[in-house]
Amino acid sequence: MIRVTDRERLRVVTLDRPDRRNALRPADLDALEAAVTDAADADVPVVYLHGEGPAFCAGADLDVVASLSDPEAFARHGQRVANSIESSESIVVAGIDGAARGGGVELALACDLRVATPEATFAEPGVRFGLFGAWGGTVRLPRVMREGDALDFALSGRAIDAEEALRTGLVSRIEANPLEVAERLAANEPDALAVVKARMRDHSEKREQEAAEAEAFGELVRAHAADIAADREQ
Question: The pTM is what?
Answer without folding.
Answer: 0.89
